[in-house]
Structures are given as C-alpha cells and as structure tokens.
Amino acid sequence: MAELSAILEGVLAKYSLVVAFAVVGGTIWFSYFLSARLTKGRLHGSAIAILIGLIAAYIGGVVTGGQKGVADVIGMSGIGIMGGAMLRDLAIVATAFGVRMEEFRKTGISGIVSLFAGVFVSFFVGACVAYAFGYRDAVSMTTIGGGAATYIVGPVTGTALGASSEVLALSVAAGLVKSILVMTMTPFVAKYIGLNNPRSALIFGGLMGTTSGVAGGLAATDPKLVPYGAMTATFYTALGCLLGPTLIFIVIRAIV
Amino acid sequence: MAIYGTALLSLCLLAGLIIGKLLGWAVSEFFGLDVGFTPNLGGVGIAMLLLIVFSEKMQRVGRLKPPSEQGILFWSSIYIPVVVAMAASQNVLKALKGGWAAVIAGALAVVVCFALVPAISRLGQSDDPTND
C-alpha cells in the first residue's frame, strides 16, 4: 500500500503539468455542467470555473500555508505552471490572433485616457482609505494606493519609497482583493456598464488594470472581448510602477 | 504545420517582452527613476500588436496556411483553462487576511473604476458615427 502511494506520488509529481491539464479539464467540465443544470446557463461556465479555482486556492492556502494557492498542494504544482506568467502571456497574446488592427486604432485615445484615469483613480481611492485607517504618512498612503492599482504596483512603489513591511503586505492584499473582485463581479455588472463591445472592453482593461482580473472577468463575460481588455491592461502595471514612486508620491506628499 | 504558428506566436511574445523591457529601461533612465527593477512597459500588449500585424501580412501573401493557424488557435482556445489555473494559484488567503483596510481599498477601487467605464466610453464617441 505504501508502495502504491509512493508510485502514484512519483508519477503525479514528475508529470505535474499533465496532471494540471487533467484537473483543470475536469473542473471546467464540472463547471459547465453546473452552469447548464443549476443556473440554466445564466451564470457562465467559465465564471463558475474561476470561482472554483479561487475557492480551491483559498483551501490550498489554509492547508499548506503557502502562497500559491492550490499549486502548493503535493502533486498540484503543475497548476502553478499552467496558470503562471509564461503560459498565461502566451495564451493572452494568442487571443489577439484574428483581431483587426482598425479596432485598436478606433479606440486609441480612449484607451490611453482610461489607462491614466485608472491609475490615478486607484491610487487616489487607495490613499484615501489608507488615510481613513490611520496610515497618514505620504509613503504609506502612496504604497496602499499602489496596491489599489495592482498587487504588483503596490509593493514596487512601496519598496522604492521604503515603506514598512506591514504596509507592503497591506498593499499586496488590496491588489489581490481587487483582482479577485474584478474576476468574479465583471460578468454581473457587464450589462450595466455597457461592457459588450471591443471599445468598452478596451476602456475596461485600461481602467481596471489588473491583468489577471481583467483576463478572468472578460473570459467569464464574453471571450471575444478578452484581447481588447488584456491589451490595455498590460500597459497599466508598467504605468503604475513608473508613476507611483514619482509623480503620484510627489503629489500626495505635497497634499498631506 | 502547427509548429509554424506556435513559433510565430512565441517569437511575437519574446520580441514584445524584450521591447517592453527596453522601453521600461529607457523611460526609467530618462526620468532618472530607480524602482529596484526594470519595469516591462506593456510587453504583452506590444506582442499582441506584433502578432496582429505579422499574421495579417502573412495571410495576405498566403504564407500562413490553415494548418499553421491551428498552432495559434490552440493557445487561444486554451486561454480560459489557463485563467482558471491562474485563479487557483492566487494567494486568496492573504487577500482575505489583509484586514479591512485592504478589502475596502481594493473593493472601492473596483467600484469606482466600474462606474467610470460608461463615462469614458462616452468620451470622443461623437466623432465616430460608425461606432455604436
């Protein structure tokens, strides 16, 4: 018996990416089954799959105490490879295949406006919340504001400004909350914010900025919109990293 | 052959990432910023533009045959499963443990930005009557 489990573990660990394909495939089949049976297709199968993924990530975190959700569970490390930056970016770029150049040209300016608006508004909102919770120095406010942009902008800004580790952790948490909310809420609010065409998807990506949130949220809303939102979102984190420790910090320091 | 399409896709991604890094480096140098690492200035977005431009050109001259296209379409169709795997490897526990300051900061940013989508969509729409 011990031998059997050792053999099983050996195969699962060695072929982790293959395990991930099988597990994710099964999860998606189950999600579409639930979508059709329980919600009569109203809640999209991929939205359910993403929710199941997030719940599994939570359980994985509780059980293992690790940082990579379910990917820290023995035999599941392939999920981390499959959902990691390398394959994610390859798949995102592939979605652009078949998109016509004019679609982007038409919305060029609105896309840029949405990017700047998204970065500034997120920093502003995050800094205000930080202030309300008693983090009233410019460094902490800017760092938590960065977290409200994305969970990469927050720690990058905080590290550049020399924020405390408590504030850094807060900013990462704020960014994760944002990413998860965008993933799960987008299909529900899409109707109300007119998110049903390439133009609004492009603007949506620029405003939200969290690549994982936008990628997941749009996939669960309408997969055809993914390339447009993902396109602008990929510029967001870079813009936030550049503006956060510089212009935005200077402005916040001047105010408080 | 499918690998031709996948190779084109991979080359576009690599080129985009390198261009993004170079841009990030140039901008940080120009403004004298030091954020501790070189930010990638939209590498993936640039890669998407490259793929659109190159695949359009190759299709027009008949150099991208349907079997090669399969090598790109596969990755595009595997996109949602990849996103599910990504969701499953997020640090959800930490997000929920961050306390109310983190939850409110993140949630409020989402609500405000959701509200801004229709506002910015309306901007500049009048000069393009073909867009509805």
Task: Give a description of the structure.
The complex is a heterodimer of chains A (256) and B (132). Chain A has two domains: 2-84, no CATH class; 101-255, no CATH class. In chain A, 60% of the residues are buried. Chain A is globular and about 65 Å long. The N and C termini of chain A lie far apart (66 Å). Chain A is mostly helical. Chain A is built from 13 helices and no strands. Chain B has two domains: 2-90, no CATH class; 91-132, no CATH class. The longest helix of chain B is centred in the first third of the chain and has 30 residues, at 2-31.
Key phrases:
A: 256 residues, mainly alpha, 2 domains, B: 132 residues, 6 helices, disordered C terminus
DSSP summary, beta strand count of chain A = 0
Based on Cα principal axes, name the global outline of chain B: extended
For the terminal residues of chain B, how far apart are their CA atoms?
40 Å
The most extensive contact between chains is: A-B, 115 and 84 residues
Low-confidence stretches of chain B: 127-132
Q: Cα-atom Rg of chain B, whole angstroms?
A: 20 Å
Q: State the helix count of chain B.
A: 6
Number of domains of chain B: 2
Taking pLDDT < 50 over at least 5 consecutive residues as the criterion, the unreliable ranges of chain A are: none
Q: Give the biggest sheet of chain B.
A: none
Oligomer: heterodimer
Strand-residue fraction of chain A? under 5%
Give a short synopsis of this structure.
The complex is a heterodimer of chains A (256) and B (132). Chain A has 256 residues and is mostly helical.
List the SSEs and their pairings:
The complex is a heterodimer of chains A (256) and B (132).
Chain A: H1 2-14, H2 16-38, H3 45-64, H4 77-82, H5 85-95, H6 101-106, H7 108-132, H8 138-149, H9 153-161, H10 165-189, H11 198-208, H12 211-221, H13 226-255
Chain B: H1 2-31, H2 43-60, H3 66-77, H4 79-88, H5 92-97, H6 100-122
Helix pairs in contact in B: 1-2, 1-3
